[in-house]
Amino acid sequence: MPDALLTAHPATPSAHVRSVTADVQFDRATGLSLRFILTGELDQLIIPSAGAVRRSDRLWEHTCFEAFVSGEGGVRYLEFNLAPSRQWAGYGFAGYRQRDESWTAPTPRIEVVRTVATLEMHAQIPLDAFRPLCPSRMLRLGLTAVIEARDGSLSYWALAHPPGRPDFHHADGFVLGLDVVAAAASQPVADLP
């Protein structure tokens, strides 16, 4: 998929962010590959330094990139939070904001590259993560970002914003379709997420 442009929620603009883009690929051997690119005045943003890959909660309170994934027509969905620090979290939901504590997210592979004006994050989420969404042929994704400025303000970015306050869990934000059968045509549908 070519780069998709995320836009700031109208209530939370940021003068320091020039753009946030995302790219997604699905492969039956490696799972879901995500690439986020943030450009702007990075010295005016709070971006933690990259450290060891480790699980951590409440990442959405600071700068992080997110992917929300559901099966076509289903109410179940998964949330992945990926911080520039290389901290991550994964959550399963049985319905809108209804946590499913039985699902455990596998550890993603995360790489971060930072320059003066660009922050690029690559994450590889293993195929096993998407088993709860079986046997869906099509995945629906909401790609989002939370960007924290040095003044403590947060801006909320997404491919699409539902009406009202920022709400990344709302199904109307899951606007990117990904045909996993076409991406892995040689694998039986029953084995795909």
CATH class: Mainly Beta
Give the helix level as a range of percent.
under 10%
Class computed from helices, strands and strand pairing: mainly beta
The CATH architecture would be Sandwich
User: What is the rounded distance between the termini?
Assistant: 19 Å
- Main beta sheet: strand number and arrangement? 13 strands, mixed
Strand-and-helix sequence, N→C?
EEEEEEEEEEEEEH
Percent of residues in beta strands? over 45%
Q: What is the strand tally?
A: 13
Quick check: average pLDDT?
90
State the helix count. 1
Low-confidence stretches: 185-193
Count of individual domains: 1
> The CATH topology is what?
Immunoglobulin-like
Radius of gyration: 16 Å
Coarse shape:
globular
Polypeptide structure, described:
The chain is an all-beta fold and 193 residues long. It has a single domain, classed as Immunoglobulin-like, CATH 2.60.40. The protein is 2% helix and 45% strand. It has one helix and 13 strands, in the order βββββββββββββα. The chain has one helix spanning 180-183, and strands at residues 4-8, 17-27, 31-40, 54-55, 64-71, 77-82, 87-95, 98-99, 109-114, 118-125, 138-148, 154-158, 176-179. Strands 1, 2, 3, 4, 5, 6, 7, 8, 9, 10, 11, 12 and 13 form a 13-stranded mixed β-sheet that branches. Mean pLDDT is 90; it is low at 185-193.
